[in-house]
Specification:
By secondary structure, this protein is α+β, with helices and mostly antiparallel strands. It has eleven helices and 33 strands. The protein has an eight-stranded parallel β-barrel, surrounded by five helices. Helix 4 links the parallel strand 6 and strand 7. The radius of gyration is 26 Å and the shape is globular. Mean pLDDT is about 90; it is low at about 10, about 20-40, about 570-575 and about 670-675.
Length: about 675
């Protein structure tokens, strides 16, 4: 039984790790409940009420290698934080229906226990929707394959049944880690910024009912919504069953917004809490890297803390969108598509690599130090990084070589193209193949709806070694017709390789299926009878049965492919998607350090290091040139790097391993997109 009660009003709570009574049996029974006061959060400890101020920060376990969780949390403590807020992405933990993953980077319980060990409280954002610049806002993509289509984020019974199943697994796992049960979790969030999306109160009430059934009556449930009357009206639950927190643009006067917040909480129970105080902003491919001034950000935080307000920094530490889990946004319509970078640095005070020797960290720490009830810990030094020099690559296979290695039973045939999700593929690439009759002057190809980026090729099946020729690309955001030249005597094979670049995670176009989502028109007529072959590759938390990465990284694969290869025309070789393998040696264990891979001179693709999916590179679009490669992914001895380059490899087939980030690639003509 815990002996101190957390009460909204926000003075230090007793140590979670060292309090000798924290897990003692109930010799003395103390009521544990959170008491919400009008202007501050309070904590009851041994019958005495003390003020407590949440100075927290978002830090997401799924964007950090588990080996670095403790390091990043210690840096958050050195910043002055007393609480960690984290999302729980459903799709990370249930990538396929019924397949649950709670190990490795998805080991949520270990992360929460580590927070407790370090005396950090936890605000848990349990979803089921999280946003977070994460694929589909944390929803599993297999929800999009269900027919009839689910109405996500609503009281649709079919959707709620699946949420009940997921929360029936998740919430009992975290229940022993609630503060009242001796754990670090003091608040659990319901949904996320729902007032910016819908107004289905029955849905919100159902989530509250589920949470109470599974977590009990004592835990504080909360919502987060934008600080406007409209969003708060739609996204909050009146009364004292759920606490309403707010977020707003950094630099806005917080106190009128906090006064508005009070209207949506029970009388006398509305301590001012900004649950997303933005320390920076997200960046999409093709934009300039988002930056905010350190002193401006720190002064905005001071305006909250100086009057006993509470705040959670979004982000304290951003981390990395490893694998295929980056999200995306849209503008005026769903074709105005903006995928997020692999880096989720966010211009946060703790940088992507964990660095804290920067102006923003110092400025924010200086402000927090003025209001912290305990002395701040010393600041750790930056982790040492290494540049391992030039890594030489060789072409091990073209992507189409793998067609001969696929089990034909896994090839889907359909009169019309179907989505990735409909063929059971959630991430990666899907190849669509059809045939059409050749005609003088060529043909005109139109695909009205492709999500997200299609590379188009043609070949002549009648020729023994006719080759595959690159024609061009069709993109979701700049969809244009393509001219298909006539290079064949009779029929022509059409290959369309579609890349899923990350599902929309925010706004009205959330239901974001991938692949070819419309008829395909050839000279104005619909082209029928398609074969679809999946190239999912491995994601952050799963390995598909078909794993070309392992095969192309081995010398054996080259021999297999050489026996039966679908050759490219030599003039188009630089335009064909292909695998490239490289190796570098780290001689000693103490030389295994964080590094960055520079992709200047390359086109667009995916990089795997020792079979770990680091993420996407796209220096021609920018701004990210270098991808962060944390030391836990590396090893002493030989390290194997495999690239899937989609367009144009570096002429020298070299990637540089360097010791610093670089966000200066691409034209960077787009302005930063603000949500």
């Amino acid at each position: 039984m815990a002996f101190c009660a957390f009460v909204p009003v926000f003075a230090p709570l007793p140590s979670l790790s060292s309090n000798p009574h924290h897990h003692a049996p109930s010799v003395i029974i103390v009521v544990i409940k959170l008491i919400l006061e009008s202007l501050r959060l309070m904590m009851i400890c041994f019958g005495k009420m003390k003020p407590f101020q949440i100075i927290g920060g978002d830090l997401h376990y799924f964007r950090i290698p588990p080996e670095y969780w403790e390091d990043r949390l210690l840096r958050a403590k050195a910043l002055g934080l007393n609480a960690i807020q984290t999302y729980v992405p459903w799709n990370l933990h249930e990538p396929n229906p019924g397949k649950l993953v709670f190990g490795g980077i998805a080991d949520l319980e270990s992360f929460l226990k580590l927070c407790q060990k370090l005396d950090l409280l936890v605000l848990l954002r349990a979803g089921p929707y999280i946003c977070g610049e994460w694929d589909l806002g944390g929803f599993p993509a297999w929800l999009l394959a269900i027919e009839p289509a689910l109405r996500l984020r609503s009281s649709d019974p079919a959707y709620l049944q699946l949420v009940e199943g997921w929360w029936g697994i998740l919430l009992p796992k975290v229940a022993p880690l609630l503060y009242g049960n001796g754990g670090p979790i003091v608040m659990v969030q319901i949904e996320n910024e729902y007032g910016s999306y819908g107004d289905d109160k029955a849905y919100l009430h159902h989530l509250v009912m589920l949470a109470r059934q599974l977590l009990g009556e004592e835990i504080i449930l909360y919502t987060t919504d934008g600080g406007s009357r409209n969003t708060l009206e739609k996204g909050t639950i009146r009364g004292d069953s759920v606490f309403s927190a707010v977020d707003f643009s950094t630099g806005d006067d917080p106190w009128p917004i906090f006064e508005l917040q009070r209207e949506f909480n029970a009388p006398g129970k509305s301590p001012p809490l900004s649950s997303e105080f933005y320390t920076g902003w997200l960046t999409h491919w093709g934009e300039k890297i988002a930056k905010t001034d350190a002193d401006f950000t720190a002064n905005a935080l001071k305006r909250i803390l100086s009057r006993n307000g509470s705040a959670v920094l979004y982000m304290a530490h951003g981390g990395t969108n490893f694998g295929f889990y980056n999200g995306a946004n849209t503008g005026q319509d769903e074709s105005d598509y903006k995928p997020d970078l692999t880096s989720y640095d966010y211009d946060a005070p703790i940088r992507e690599s964990g660095d804290v020797d920067n102006a923003k960290f110092r400025a924010i720490r200086r402000v927090i130090g003025q209001y912290s009830s305990t002395p701040l810990p010393s600041v750790p030094s930056n982790k040492e990084k290494a540049g391992f020099g030039s890594i030489q690559f060789e072409n091990t296979a073209f992507l189409f070589d793998l067609l001969d290695m696929r089990d034909m039973a896994n090839v889907i045939k359909s009169e019309n193209p179907v989505s990735m999700e409909s063929v059971g593929q959630m991430f990666g690439f899907l190849l669509y193949v059809a045939e059409y009759a050749s005609k003088n002057g060529g043909s005109r190809l139109v695909i009205p709806k492709v999500h997200d980026r299609a590379l188009v090729f043609i070949s002549c099946p009648s020729k023994a070694n006719g080759g595959v020729s690159y024609v061009g690309r069709i993109e979701r955001w700049s969809n244009q017709a393509l001219h298909l030249p006539n290079k064949c005597v009779s029929n022509i094979s059409l290959f369309i390789l579609v890349e899923n670049m990350g599902r929309v995670n925010y706004g009205q176009y959330l239901f974001d299926r991938k692949g070819i989502l419309s008829p395909v028109y050839l000279d104005g007529s619909i082209l029928h009878w398609w074969k679809m072959t999946s190239f999912p590759l491995q994601n952050l938390n799963e390995d598909p049965k078909f794993n070309p990465i392992i095969q192309v990284a081995s010398s054996r694969f080259t021999k297999i492919a050489a026996r039966k290869k679908l050759e490219y025309n030599s003039g188009d070789a630089s335009k064909g998607p292909a695998f490239y393998a490289g190796r570098f040696i780290i001689n000693k264990t103490n030389e295994v350090k964080d590094t960055y891979f520079s992709f200047r001179g390359w086109g667009k693709g995916i990089v795997f290091v020792n079979e770990f999916n680091i993420g996407r590179y796209w220096p021609t679009s920018g701004p990210q040139c270098n991808l962060y490669v944390p030391a836990p992914i590396l090893r002493q001895g030989e390290n194997v790097v495999v690239l899937l380059e989609l367009e144009s490899p570096n002429p020298e087939l070299v990637v540089e391993s360097v010791d610093q980030p670089d966000f200066s690639c691409g034209s960077n003509t787009a302005s930063v997109h603000q949500l």
